[in-house]
């Protein structure tokens, strides 16, 4: 008799525990505590892409370039910026873009750059910053002039009016120090890093050397090179849009 009573009491206790657990779960889902949304799920509506002539170059007929888009691409739709825009708009049709060539205002003079040149980009209030530079920086100078500190300063300035995610893209031309600096910055600041290693080595395919008489223009990415750049960037940042 005592055994049956004990078993009965234990059953009542277990039911009580289960009931209390159910009440606790209901309280947790009642809206009293908002769920924590991981940073990577914040919707990306404004994308800022800053670079050099690979990103955008105006017409310059004296060197054989008549486009107004990423240098050496056969058309605007074939440069990496517009290819990337297409991928992003597949997931966010209303995404806005701001594109800038900062070769003269930052890349070539990064150690003494004047931030007043970047006010428009800051005031765009980007949700994502993609910085795609390196070819106009002497690799040894990147170390000598502390490129890392100046890139951090640039990003800090651009982030004054928003809290964007950041993606640094390595050099298309071989620049080991620059790529190392970018990668280390990304680890330090929890940014995304995209390597372009190997693309320039296959110059017959990934550069436009066979399409332009001017060697400077021809050293830029061909349509295939632009496609490779866009795909590598997208592979790294697509998680931001798959929500």
TrEMBL record:
One GO molecular function term of this record is: hydrolase activity, acting on ester bonds
Q: Which InterPro entries match?
A: SGNH_hydro_sf
The cross-references to Gene3D superfamilies, in alphabetical order and at most eight, read: SGNH hydrolase (3.40.50.1110)
Protein name (record): SGNH/GDSL hydrolase family protein
Q: What lineage does the source organism belong to?
A: Bacteria, Pseudomonadati, Bacteroidota, Cytophagia, Cytophagales
